[in-house]
Model the fold of this input.
Amino acid sequence: MAEVVVTRRWRYRTRSVALSFLDVFARLLPLDAGAGRFPGPDVILLLAFVWVLRRPDYVPALLVAVVVLMTDVLFLRPLGLWAACVVLGLEFLRSREAASRDLPFLLEWMMVTGVIVSMTLGYVITLALFAVDQPALGLTLIQMIMTILCYPLAVVFSGRILGLRKMAPGAVDQLGHRL
Amino acid sequence: MAQDRGSTDSYTRPIRRIFIGGLVLVLFALFLLWRIDSPRAERFRAMLVDRFVPSMDWALVPVTNAVDLVGDFQSYARIREQNQELRRELQQMRAWREAALQLEQENAKLLDLNKVRLDPKLTFVTGVVLADSGSPFRQSVLLNVGARDGIQDGWATTDGLGLVGRISGVGQTTSRVILLTDPGSRIPVTIQPTGQRGILAGDNSALPPVDFIEDTEQVRPGDRVVSSGDGGVFPAGLLVGQLVAGPDDRLRVRLAADYERLEFLRVLRSRPAEAIGAPGGLVGPDAIFPAAEGTDG
Done:
């Protein structure tokens, strides 16, 4: 029984990393190198947030930190800062996970919106404090709004295709421990 | 772990807090390190990219080619129109070619008559585009040539026709080209035919603006923009594009390079110009006599 639980956990962890790799891969394809593209949603962030509010043990902080740090390196962002923001947001949501199990979806969405907005603001303000050259604020805001709007899509994708559902209050795992 | 609520919770929670706090601190320290010692951090980044991206090459190339193939199939639908169009263009090009050949001969004759000494011709290394920056905020591409092929930071890159960008970040087998549209790109340019100087500053749009033009009265949309070589880091006279008037009344450049299809890029080997450090020594008895003694004795 214990092996089943552990293998399932690792299967989902592998899946989250594989999906992140797929996203990085799709972005790196040299198809539209021209400027003026519309920034899409931050898929890795969305998956991490959706999963942490459903099964927090599937997205350990260290794993998310390493994956986001890797995207920092590849996408020419300042190293480490966005990863730190993501870990802080993730841990905030993780601490609210137990309380938000019977929350209606709209409230959950608003909570995630609040977290993403404060993460983006913190990121932009820190960069400004350290006098780092920044992309236009409008682009950053468009990406933030796209990420927030795509949250329900990520929830539907995780639920329907990966079978990741919210735990009921007082749910137990196969070993009988309270989740 | 988070799911072990209840008896073990009171033990694991403080440890977990410390772990998360430590993780965030480490990441923030990394950011500080990047801010303080940027060149070293960027070398580290180039090294990681060099290790990581070429290993995805086997998958990147087929997917890119497949998507391009679909695009090409769509253009087959209009193949007849395209054929007609190309024939017309070919006819015009023949006329231009004739004119260019005559001008080249004339130019060579005049240069010979004037005994003009030109720069030694630029040589180049051609690389294939492996990947782009992956982020809408930065405009850059990754080439499959690097320090192994003698690539150095700051060299200019063209697509055969127009300037594309400059090398910034060299790994062992890869190098990154910052495109002219990147917000961090600043290139000194000259606007022909009046010779006004300006700085081409990328701003994430397809048409980068030209700043610091001395006299905007003397330039007009349609003028040719070439690199000026000011500051000595960039070869002069590379075609950049054509001046256009943007919707916000700023002068912008329509780039000559085809940014939609960056496949093969030429990296121009440029040597820094020899610097003239001090004025020549005084010609006089002191300078001549020791030398003369030396030859006698």
Summary: Chain A touches chain B through 52 residues (CB under 8 Å).
